[in-house]
Amino acid sequence: MVVLNRIYTRTGDAGQTALGNGARVPKHDLRVDAYGTVDETNATVGLARLHADGLIDQRLGLIQNDLFDLGADLCRPDMDRDAEAKFPPLRMAAAQVTRLETEIDEMNAGLAPLRSFVLPGGSALAAHLHLCRTVSRRAERLVVELASAEDVNPDAIRYLNRLSDWFFVASRIANDSGAGDVLWVPGANR
Questions:
Q1: CA 109, 115, 116: angle at the middle one, nearest 5?
Q2: What fold does the segment set 25-79+87-180 form as a domain?
Q3: What CA–CA distance (Å, rounded) separates 170 from 122?
Q4: Which residues, by range, are in coiled-coil regions (predicted)?
């Protein structure tokens, strides 16, 4: 259980922060940028939930919890030492990816195939879900970049890749099951 008695610690005043294993790194470190963008994704999900209800809201709540798990995973480097850790780090699991895939398939089953790209917008919920999608894609790019330099849990990358797809399909559901989608018309304003 996490207990936060003090919010500020002054330990980051010189531009350093602590990773989950206690190592100090610059606040602009790629790993910090990656899990910080996961946190930003979570904040956009919180905004989307202001417009959601029912099953979509419930599923967004699960995603918010998953995103905290993902941040915990990313803030702990040294995956090769997981077995030796006094407190084993929380790592993303394949089951979390599978859950997203199942939900995507369920939502997509009732949607008509797209004949054009969809512009972000339509309903307020759909617009917010598109924002979630784009921020999660940025998080994915950062995590993939991090994985090119350091060990990263492959399920973390897979989760982010599926997550942006989840947001896209959910945005179509939020747009009256696709009837309210705003479609791109190539060259319409020439």
A1: 115
A2: Hypothetical Protein Ta1238; Chain: A; (1.20.1200)
A3: 12
A4: none
| Separation CA 58–CA 174 (nearest Å) | 14
For residues 66 and 71, what is the distance between their CA atoms, to the nearest angstrom?
A: 9
Q: Give the pLDDT of residue 161.
A: 98
Structure-token pair, residue 66? 């998953």
In this structure, the strands spanning 118-119 and 182-183 are antiparallel
What is the Cα–Cα distance from 153 to 124, expressed in whole angstroms? 34
Q: What is the pLDDT of residue 78?
A: 78
Cβ atoms of residues 13 and 23 within 8 Å: no
Closest by Cα among 117, 135, 122, 128 to 183: 117
The more confidently predicted of residues 161 and 16 is 161
Contacts of 49 (CB under 8 A, 6+ apart): 57, 60, 61, 64
pTM of the predicted model over 0.70? yes
CB contact at 8 A, 142 and 33: yes
